[in-house]
Specification:
With about 375 residues, the protein is an alpha/beta fold. The chain has one domain: Ribonuclease Z/Hydroxyacylglutathione hydrolase-like (Metallo-beta-lactamase, Chain A, 4-Layer Sandwich). The chain contains 11 helices and 15 strands. Strand 12, helix 11 and strand 13 form a beta-alpha-beta unit. The N and C termini lie far apart (about 50 Å).
Length: about 375
């Protein structure tokens, strides 16, 4: 056998030996990785890796329709070291943990409206925040009128579980006074389009009306922190109020629905004889915003970055993001991103920088 052939066989043998070693070591390697992830999740300050500034992360970029890359609507906003959650769809608390944004750190939850997909993860999030932090006071939950009814329902649904947790872990770990939520309802005055619901030296949170008829009330939120700004549209048709709130903002997080792709869903439902689903697919197109409309609004408002969320319909493969966007990229001069769970946009204080990143301990 010639030397080149021998060398090839030797190299192949070494690769096989190394591969076999890795195979047999896969358990210890997996445990080491687990320890590393858990150490990050259990860190006394899991937000320490974020620079001072405003950070917006998608803990749920989807809609009521199942999507492997997108849970129910949920957006985390970190202002400095303060963590706020806007909406709490299915899987919210689990995604927050995977993103090292632990429920224990949540200062308050803000709801945009009371469609089930925006709050069906609320009970789990409240429970996780209470138990994992031994909270001494309930979680403040802001929302339009009706938030009291929503929270009363969750309190009743989880009342038995509350008792189990206290009996099992003890009142030191699960203080009875810290269970649940405190409603913080607000009403935007007639004739006004917005209301400041938190105003502090470095942080201001503004709620504003949006158009999601027949769902009323429905709001979006603007966060201002040390000169940086982010606007979250909530569910809405193209709105002059959203455009006004987004004027000059660093980041606009806007919902998006592709009418062309939803028409394909409707056609499939009709072909299968699913008249009820076909009707739903037809109905949902009149109270949302297309990617192109969101891009046009962002361009007029002069925002720096457009992040699309509440993605309808599901996009099971990345190749569908192009058809979903349609002409949107050509209608906005800044960057556009089709959101996925774990996406994070960072706006460091004292600069004009906009950083894109991922913050997810497990691939989705």
């Amino acid at each position: 056998m010639r030397w080149p052939a021998k060398l090839t066989l030797i190299l192949l043998a070494l690769v096989l030996i190394a591969g076999g070693g890795l195979w047999f070591a896969r358990g210890p390697l997996a445990l080491a990785l687990m320890d590393r992830v858990m150490a990050r999740n259990m860190a006394s300050n899991p937000l320490a890796d974020l620079p001072d500034g405003l950070h917006v992360a998608l803990c749920g970029a989807g809609s009521p329709m199942p999507d492997v890359s997108r849970g129910g609507p949920c957006t985390a906003v970190v202002a400095g070291q303060r963590l706020f959650i806007v909406d709490a769809g299915s899987g919210a608390s689990r995604n927050l943990t995977l993103m090292s944004l632990p429920p224990a750190r949540v200062e308050a939850i803000l709801l945009t409206h009371f469609h089930s997909d925006h709050m069906d993860g609320l009970g789990e999030l409240l429970m996780q925040r209470w138990a994992s932090s031994s909270a001494a006071a309930p979680t403040p939950v802001y929302g339009p009128p009706g938030v009291e009814t929503v929270l009363a329902g969750f309190a009743q649904a989880y009342s038995l579980d509350r008792g189990y947790r206290i009996a099992h872990h003890g009142p030191e770990v699960t203080p009875p006074a810290g269970y649940g939520a405190t409603p913080r309802p607000f009403a935007i005055p007639d004739g006004e389009t917005s209301l400041v619901i938190l105003d502090e030296p470095d942080l201001k949170i503004t709620a504003f009306r949006v158009n999601h008829d027949p769902i009323e009330p429905a709001v979006g939120y603007r966060f201002d922190y040390k000169g940086r700004s982010a606007v979250l549209s909530g569910d809405t048709t193209p709105s002059p109020v959203v455009e006004a709130q987004a004027r000059g903002a660093d980041l606009l997080v806007h919902e998006a629905l592709s009418i062309d792709l939803v028409k394909r869903q409707r056609a499939a439902a009709e072909a299968a004889g699913r008249a009820n689903l076909a009707r739903i697919f037809g109905d949902i197109t009149d109270y949302h915003t297309t990617p192109e409309q969101a891009a046009q609004l962002a361009e007029r408002a002069g925002v720096k970055f457009l992040l699309l969320n509440h993605i309808v319909p599901p996009l099971p493969i990345r190749a569908l993001e192009g058809p979903f966007l349609g002409e949107a990229r050509g209608q906005f001069s800044g960057p556009v991103r089709v959101g996925r769970d774990g996406d994070i946009i960072s706006l460091p204080a004292g600069s004009d920088e906009v950083r894109q990143g991922r913050r997810m301990n497990a691939q989705r």
